[in-house]
């Protein structure tokens, strides 16, 4: 889940930011030297003061950032929908893209997908305008106010939901590039240009710049919401979002970031990919390869701070979690808040970036009542998730597998276990999740399965992708005992196979 990518280059370094919606911290910042290998270096919104998320609904929160660099300062514009205290459109600044980032400068409007362009000694704001078009104004970042108010300068190019605009001054033209067709299978990127940022704009005769809407056979769909970039050698590239549906039109990993080359026509129009189509492979950019150190499979929680891969739901409650109360463990103090509420449960999760993977953890937890539980969760949104938790049934300690779909319990399976620590595992393929329990000294036991499509965007709607993480809750009242997670493993494309035992 890395949608709505926006990119900038500073010397030989590339930086990219993507949307996070109701997850916290917000707006991850990635760094690359070669456009191919990327490393997360921080978050633009990493504290409640600059990331108000309380009360944000699922697929609410922080929408479609734009990243720009000017005169020693990085700028990220964004829109925060639904968080308590939000005022809509804002931007934050930093001199180091890894942070710290400033508190928000609230623009006070409620349009989505704002962007910026620095040109002519001015800061231009570009945004959709709720009227099927795009507006531009000039903004003074010193006085923090508009010098020239937003005014409509162009319309969309005929597709639904014109959005995601970016403007670039290239040569004698101002290019206004935008997405349309919705963020689903009709998604596409289009462009128009003018000799003034205030128009009039003429559309490209080669539109769309890039789209796979007419290529249903492609494994990549919903291509759009792009941002242009020029490399040191003068070549041009774009990043955009796309999806990888499986088993039909079902995608559960969320919208991801794609890279494609851009060629310019003799009459000055950009065309992305292979004549406007996103292929599975392109020749790499003409840059020295720069790989980052691989993320370890295991997080053993021996640090006093969480790794950058971890996220909360909305603004977390400090009392819900700790890395110091029991050193070497992640402790979750399950509160009354559950996963199905528009609140922040004791949940710490990470994106699922691979179809084939195994996530596992070693848990120490003693429930005292049927409502108390702790374990692993595959989360689609508030109303759709799969849980593999230690809980109590008829006075006995059990591991329970629950399907919670369309805001109700669809099924439950459970197995009695001893009071020892237990290993919980979730394995996945393109089409199926499997849920395992491994009691101390025994083989892993398969407790249940679920189709990945049940958490697909097409089934549950919204804009996010699956997260997998650790969770604890008393479902209406606080847990009696804490849940201590000794470690968490995430292994992509695993080679090991679990031995299946009877339930």
UniProtKB/TrEMBL annotation:
<feature type="site" description="Important for catalytic activity, responsible for pKa modulation of the active site Glu and correct orientation of both the proton donor and substrate">
    <location>
        <position position="113"/>
    </location>
</feature>
<dbReference type="InterPro" id="IPR041542">
    <property type="entry name" value="GH43_C2"/>
</dbReference>
<protein>
    <recommendedName>
        <fullName>Beta-xylosidase C-terminal Concanavalin A-like domain-containing protein</fullName>
    </recommendedName>
</protein>
<dbReference type="GO" id="GO:0005975">
    <property type="term" value="P:carbohydrate metabolic process"/>
</dbReference>
<feature type="active site" description="Proton acceptor">
    <location>
        <position position="4"/>
    </location>
</feature>
<dbReference type="InterPro" id="IPR023296">
    <property type="entry name" value="Glyco_hydro_beta-prop_sf"/>
</dbReference>
<keyword id="KW-0326">Glycosidase</keyword>
<dbReference type="Pfam" id="PF17851">
    <property type="entry name" value="GH43_C2"/>
</dbReference>
<dbReference type="InterPro" id="IPR013320">
    <property type="entry name" value="ConA-like_dom_sf"/>
</dbReference>
<dbReference type="InterPro" id="IPR006710">
    <property type="entry name" value="Glyco_hydro_43"/>
</dbReference>
<feature type="domain" description="Beta-xylosidase C-terminal Concanavalin A-like">
    <location>
        <begin position="298"/>
        <end position="491"/>
    </location>
</feature>
<feature type="active site" description="Proton donor">
    <location>
        <position position="163"/>
    </location>
</feature>
<comment type="similarity">
    <text>Belongs to the glycosyl hydrolase 43 family.</text>
</comment>
<dbReference type="InterPro" id="IPR051795">
    <property type="entry name" value="Glycosyl_Hydrlase_43"/>
</dbReference>
<keyword id="KW-0378">Hydrolase</keyword>
<dbReference type="GO" id="GO:0004553">
    <property type="term" value="F:hydrolase activity, hydrolyzing O-glycosyl compounds"/>
</dbReference>
<dbReference type="Pfam" id="PF04616">
    <property type="entry name" value="Glyco_hydro_43"/>
</dbReference>
């Amino acid at each position: 889940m890395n949608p709505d990518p926006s990119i900038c280059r500073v010397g030989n370094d590339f930086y990219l930011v993507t949307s996070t919606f109701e997850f916290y911290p917000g707006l991850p910042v990635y760094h690359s030297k070669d456009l191919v290998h990327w490393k997360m270096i921080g978050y633009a919104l990493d504290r409640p003061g600059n990331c108000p998320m309380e009360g944000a609904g699922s697929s609410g929160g922080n929408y479609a950032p734009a990243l720009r660099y000017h005169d020693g300062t990085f700028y990220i514009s964004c829109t925060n929908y639904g968080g308590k205290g939000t005022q809509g459109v804002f931007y934050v600044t930093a001199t180091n893209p890894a942070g710290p980032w400033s508190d928000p400068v609230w623009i006070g409007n409620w349009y989505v997908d704002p962007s910026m362009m620095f040109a002519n000694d001015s800061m231009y704001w570009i945004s959709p305008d709720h009227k099927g078009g795009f507006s531009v104004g000039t903004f003074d970042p010193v006085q923090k106010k508009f010098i020239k108010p937003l005014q409509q300068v162009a319309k969309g190019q005929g597709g639904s939901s014109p959005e995601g605009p970016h403007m670039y001054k290239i040569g004698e033209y101002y290019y206004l590039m935008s997405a349309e067709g919705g963020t689903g299978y009709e998604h596409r990127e289009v462009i128009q240009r003018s000799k003034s940022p205030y128009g009039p704009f003429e559309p490209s005769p080669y539109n769309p710049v890039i789209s796979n809407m007419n290529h249903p056979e492609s494994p990549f769909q919903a291509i759009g919401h792009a941002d242009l970039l020029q490399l040191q050698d003068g070549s041009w590239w774009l990043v955009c979002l796309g999806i990888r549906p499986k088993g039909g039109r079902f995608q559960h990993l969320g919208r991801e970031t794609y890279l494609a080359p851009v060629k310019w026509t003799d009459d000055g129009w950009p065309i992305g990919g292979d004549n406007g189509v996103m292929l599975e492979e392109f020749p790499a950019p003409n840059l020295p390869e720069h790989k980052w150190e691989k993320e370890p499979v295991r997080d053993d929680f021996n640090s006093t701070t969480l790794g950058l891969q971890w996220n909360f739901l909305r603004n977390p409650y400090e009392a819900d979690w700790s890395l110091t109360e029991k050193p070497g463990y992640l402790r979750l103090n399950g509160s009354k808040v559950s996963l199905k509420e528009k609140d922040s449960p004791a949940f710490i999760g990470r994106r699922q970036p691979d179809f084939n993977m195994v996530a596992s953890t070693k848990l120490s937890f003693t429930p005292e009542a049927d409502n108390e539980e702790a374990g692993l969760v595959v989360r689609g949104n508030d109303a759709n998730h799969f849980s593999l938790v230690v809980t109590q049934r008829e006075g006995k300690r059990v591991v329970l597998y629950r399907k919670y779909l369309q805001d109700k319990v669809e099924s439950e399976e459970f197995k009695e276990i001893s009071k020892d620590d237990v290993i919980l595992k979730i394995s996945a393929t393109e089409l199926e999740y499997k849920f395992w329990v491994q009691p101390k000294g025994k083989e892993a036991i398969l407790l249940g399965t679920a189709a990945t499509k049940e958490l697909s965007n097409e089934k549950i709607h919204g804009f996010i992708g699956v997260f997998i993480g650790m969770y604890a809750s008393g479902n209406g009242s606080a847990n009696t005992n804490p849940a201590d997670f000794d470690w968490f493993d995430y292994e992509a494309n695993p080679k090991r196979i679990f031995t299946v035992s009877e339930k």
